């Protein structure tokens, strides 16, 4: 569940990093450390995206497996 929160946080930080780079004159004129930081945030966001997708897939499988037992209990 935390992977979804981290994914959202990384997306927000990436947006702010892009704003900062734009204010500093774009990728051609800003510090290379800012560009490297933006690239790391992109990699972090991609990682948490994959983790979130795996989490949602696992939760959906568990939900599909448990749901029939719930309906069987109601119908009895």
What report would you give on this structure?
It contains 2 helices and no strands. It is mainly alpha-helical and 76 residues long. The radius of gyration is 20 Å and the shape is rod-shaped.
Task: Give a quick summary of the entry.
The chain has helices at residues 2-23, 32-75. The protein has 2 helices and no strands.
Helix/strand/pairing category: mainly alpha
Q: How many helices does DSSP assign?
A: 2
List how many beta strands DSSP finds: 0
**Could you tell me the strand content as a percent range?**
under 5%
Chain oligomer state: single chain
How far apart the termini lie comes to 34 Å
Q: Please, what is the average pLDDT?
A: 92
The ordered string of helix (H) and strand (E) elements is: HH
Describe the main β-sheet briefly.
none
* Basic shape: rod-shaped
Low-confidence stretches: none
What does the radius of gyration come to?
20 Å
Helix content: over 70%
Give me the secondary-structure topology.
Layout lengths: L1 H22 L8 H44 L1
What are the main properties of this structure?
2 helices; mainly alpha; single chain; 76 residues
